[in-house]
Specification:
alpha/beta; eight-stranded parallel beta barrel; 12 helices
Length: about 325
């Protein structure tokens, strides 16, 4: 039913009752487990000063995972251009690509990676939010430095992350593959893809439009168990709906006791309906539907659930069910 490659986004949630170093160690086991299950690639997201997500640089996680695996593609999803000098990013990921032939991606995004203004300014050495023009210049500079300054072989595969029509248009104009953040702003996905395909100009990086769609995906043996597993992320989202900084990532039991308002419940249910949560049959059908609606060339699954074993089990159930439904 799913005829596109499946990949994973590692967000490195710091679970209540654990230390960040334990989350960091889990990223290695996660990469090795996903490689054994046959997933295509893993990307690492950049976050800072969050009680729920580890502040682990994507370039470091990519390097460590590449040394701990042998075949799966790895990279940033994304590294945030406003926080880094373009030449530094080009050198870092160019070096990784040369060391790990054909396995390294450079996914570039725009956001600050934090909800804390002081942290955002510290990352930018006191500068304020980046403008559209500055961001466009940064992305162009990264691509130019990869070719003209780093010039190693092979180069990393560049992608542009987007959740808006403006970001999608930039990816199209630059001729880059696009990764759509459906797991963050699902209502923008189809409009952004239309803008991307309309604006696309072939480049040395990509001859025709190439689309990856990232979707929040939680799979379990029953619908009730899947709802239980997704509960902790619902608590984090409810905090964001109130305009608060991220909450710590709670246990499923703590999430089940959380006092959601009716407005929050409705908003969370609406969001979940656009993602992929449920039994293997429900999840695979939803992923196939989303691939068809978007014309995606690849789906990237992000599974923010408590406990590494349950996360890996979610990915395993999906691949087993997908394989069983496509077997002759």
């Amino acid at each position: 039913m799913i005829d596109v490659p499946l990949s994973a986004l590692e967000v490195a949630m710091v679970q209540t009752g654990t230390r960040p170093v334990e989350t960091l160690r889990d990223t290695t086991a996660f990469a090795q487990g996903l490689e054994q299950l046959g997933y295509h690639r893993i990307w690492y997201a950049e976050h800072h000063h969050s009680p729920a997500i580890g502040a682990f640089p994507p370039v470091v996680l990519t390097a460590h995972a590449a040394a701990s695996t042998s075949a799966i593609r790895l990279g940033s999803g994304g590294v945030l251009a406003p926080n880094h000098a373009p030449l530094t990013l080009a050198e870092q990921f160019g070096t990784l690509a040369a060391l790990h032939h054909g396995r390294i991606d450079l996914g570039i995004g725009r956001g600050p990676g934090t909800f804390d203004e002081a942290t955002a300014r510290a990352l930018r050495r006191g500068a304020g939010p980046t403008t559209d023009a500055e961001y466009h210049d940064d992305v162009a500079a990264i691509l130019s430095f990869l070719v003209d300054e780093v010039a190693l072989d092979p180069l990393p595969e560049p992608w542009l992350l987007a959740s808006s029509t403006a970001g999608a248009a930039l990816a199209g104009r630059l001729g880059l593959p696009i990764a759509l953040a459906h797991h963050i702003r699902p209502d923008n996905t189809l409009a952004a893809l239309d803008r991307y395909r309309a604006a696309f100009t072939p480049s040395r990086w990509c001859e025709q439009p190439r689309v990856l769609v990232c979707v929040e995906t939680v799979c379990a043996g029953t619908e009730e168990e899947a709802a239980w597993r997704v509960g902790p992320m619902d608590v984090v989202k409810a905090g964001l709906l109130k305009g608060l900084s991220e909450n710590p990532f709670p246990t499923p039991a703590e999430a089940a006791a959380h006092p959601f308002t009716e407005e929050e419940r409705q908003a969370l249910a609406g969001f979940r309906a656009q993602q992929a949560v449920g039994t293997p049959e429900t999840v695979v059908q939803r992923l196939a539907q989303l691939a068809g609606e978007t014309g995606a060339d690849e789906l990237m699954l992000t599974t923010p659930v408590y406990d590494l074993r349950d996360r890996l089990r979610s990915y395993e159930l999906i691949t087993k069910y997908a394989a069983a439904t496509t077997a002759p």
